[in-house]
Amino acid sequence: MERRRFLSRSAAVAAGTALAAGPFQGVAARAEHGGGRGRGYGPLKPVPDARDGAVRLHLPEGFRYRSFNPAGSPLSDGTATPGRHDGMAAFRGPRGSVVLVRNHEVNGPVGAFGDPATAYDRAAGGGTCTVRVTPHGEVLGAHVSLNGTQMNCSGGAMPWGSWITCEETVNGPDVGDDFTGADNTLLEQKHGYVFEVPVHGRGRARPIRSAGRFAHEAAAFDARSGAVYLTEDNFGFPSGLYRYLPPRHPMDAGRLLDGGRLQMLAVKGRPGADLSVGQPKGAVYATTWVDIDDPDPTFTGRPANDVAIQAVGAQGRERGAAVFSRLEGAVVHRGVVYFVSTQGGAPVTQPPPSGFGDGRGQVWAYDTRGGRLRLVVESPGDVRLDLPDNITHGPRGTLVLCEDGDGDNLMRGLTLRGELFDFARLEPVAGDSGAEFAGSTFAPGGDTLFVNVQSRAGLSFAIRGPWRRGPF
C-alpha cells in the first residue's frame, strides 16, 4: 500500500511539474487585462435534451447533451435526490463508467436527507450524492455519500481518490440566526468546515477542523507540497485565499488529516492589500503567508451571523492578509492555482452587484513554486464575463468558467491566449431567475463535460461533442 501511494504521489507531482516551462505556463502566461474575444466552438443554438426532447441548453454546432438525476428523483436506496446541485468532480469508474461526487447547497435546519443515523447533524439538509453514470449521462447507480452538513457549495477533487466538500456557512447553535432568519439553535453541530468523501463508499462525517471554520467555497490540491488551497466566499464582507498544511502529506497518508496549520495569503510589502478593486493589466505580486491562530472558533453569547462569519478572516487581516471579493471556484493546473473573484475588479455597470465588490469578476493565478500571484483576466463588462463562479480546466488547459450573472447564464471558456468565448447558455428556467451553471468537470479522458444547474430544483448534464476542433 505504501509503495502504491508513493508511486501515485510521484505521478501526481509529475503531472503538476513535468510539462511546466515556467511558473505561469498556459493561461496565466498569455492572458491580457479584459481578455480578447475568442472564436471558441462557434455560435450557440438551442439543442434538445436527449432525455426528453426539451430545450435546456444552447450549445455550438455538433454538441449534444443528456440531463439526469433531477431533484426529487430516487437514488438507488430510494432516497429522494436533494436539490441545489452545486460543486462536483468526475472520477474513473468500473467498466468505462464515470463516478460523480456532487454537492447539494441546502441551507437551514430542514432535516438531513438519507439515513439520519449517519448524519453529521440530523437537522442539516446539505451533503453529497455519489452517482455512477455512463459517459452519455445514463444513471447506473446513486447513493448518499455524506449527509447532515449545510450549504455544501464547491470543493475539489483529490488525486488519492476523494472529493473535499466545503460548507459555505458558519451556522451552528453558538451563532445567531442565519442570514435567512432561520433559527440556528435547531442545529446540533457547528458548521463551516471541509469534509472528505471517498470516491467509493461514504464519507465519515468528520470535519477537518484545523482547515478552518469560515464560508468555505472551493479546494485545490498541490501535490508537490501537499497543501490544500481554500477559497472563501464571504458574500457581504472581505474574503481571503487560504492554504491548509496538513500534518502529513495526503498522498502518503491516503487522506486529509486534521491537526495541520491554516494560513492566509498576503502581498509582500503591502499589508492588507485590497485586490478586490480594479487592477492594472498583467498585475503580478510577490506574496507571503500569515498564520491563523484560532482556525476553529467556538462562540459565546451567540454573536450575529455577520460577526461570526468574519472571525477567522479577521485574524489574517490583522496580520496583513490580502483582501479579495467573493473567492469562489479554484483548480490546480501544472503547479498553478487558478481561482475566481466573483465580484472583483473595477465597476463596469450601474448599479453595482449586491454584496462585497463592485466589479463583474476576476480570475487570478497563484504559482505554488515561486509564490507569485498574477491577474489573469478582469471583466471589462458583463457581456464578456459576468460574475464567474465555479471553474475547471479542459484537457488542454483552457479554463471553463460557470457564471452567476443577472441576465443570461453562460459557461465561458478562457483560452491559453487569454481569450474569452461563450460555450453554453442556459435556457431560462420558468419561475427561477436565479438558476445558474455549477460544478463543471471533465470526465477522465476529456470526452464528456459534466455540469449541474443549480436552481430551486436542480439537475445534472452530460455534454459531448467535437472537443478537438476547439480549445478545450
TrEMBL record:
Database matches in Pfam families: PhoX
The UniProt record lists the keyword Lyase: no
PROSITE patterns: TAT
Origin superkingdom: Bacteria
Keywords: Signal
Signal peptide as annotated in the record: 1-20
Record's keyword annotation contains Signal: yes
The protein, known as: Secreted PhoX family phosphatase
Native organism: Thermomonospora umbrina
